[in-house]
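Re: that chain you flagged

S.,

Sorry for the slow reply, it's been a week of failed gels. I finally had a moment to sit down with the sequence you sent. For the record, here it is as I used it:
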Amino acid sequence: MKPLRFWFDPVSPYAYLAFEHLPQALEGLSYVVEYRPVLFAGLLGQWGQKGPAEVEPKRAWTFRHVAWRAHELGIPVATPAQHPFNPLAHLRLLLACAPDGGTPNRHACEQVLHHVWRGDGADANDAARLATLRERLAPARDPASEAVKQALKDATAEAIGRGVFGVPTVELDGRLFWGLDALAMVAAALRGDPWFDGPDWDAAGQPRPGVVRS
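Prediction finished late last night. Pasting the C-alpha cells below so you have them in one place:
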C-alpha cells in the first residue's frame, strides 16, 4: 500500500470536502492515509498569502464554489456562523487524540470536520459544543498542554519544510497535490500513470523569467 499524507486544517471547506471525497476518489486503489493537522494561518504567514475568506470577492466565490461542489458530490455542508474562525481548539483536540508523536485517526478527523461543517451553521467555537466534542472524542492528552501545542507548531513547520502552502494537500512519493480537484491526479499517480514517470512533472514546475511586483 502506498502511504499518503493528508495535510489539512478544519477551517478549510475544501479540506472537509476532500476528506469526505477521498475514499470515492481513490476507490479500488491500494493506499494508507496519515492525517496531518496543520495551522493554515501559519502556512499563509510563511508564504505571504491572504486566505480566500480575507478577499471579499474571492470569499463570495469560494463559498459559492464550495456549495456547488458539495451539491455535485452529494456531500452535506453548512458553513459555520463565523468564518474564518480560530481553529486552534480543533487542531489541538485532534493532536490530543493522537498517541504521543503520532497522528489522529480518520474517526477523530471526521468528528472534528463534521463538528465544523455539519453543525447546521452553528459557531464552530461555541464552548458548549466544543465541550461535547471533546467528551465524545475523549482525548488521551490534554489539548491545552504544552506538549500538544508544540506538536501543532512542529507539524506546521514540517509542512512548510516540505513545501506545503495550502490545504488540503496530499503528499505522495514526495510530490504535493494541492486542493480538492487534485484528488484526480493523486488517483492517476497511484494507478501508475506514466506521465508521472517521465519529464513532464518536473518540466511543468520549472521557473520561468517573469515580472516581479515591487
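What I noticed first: The first strand starts at residue 2 and ends at 8.

Talk soon,
D.
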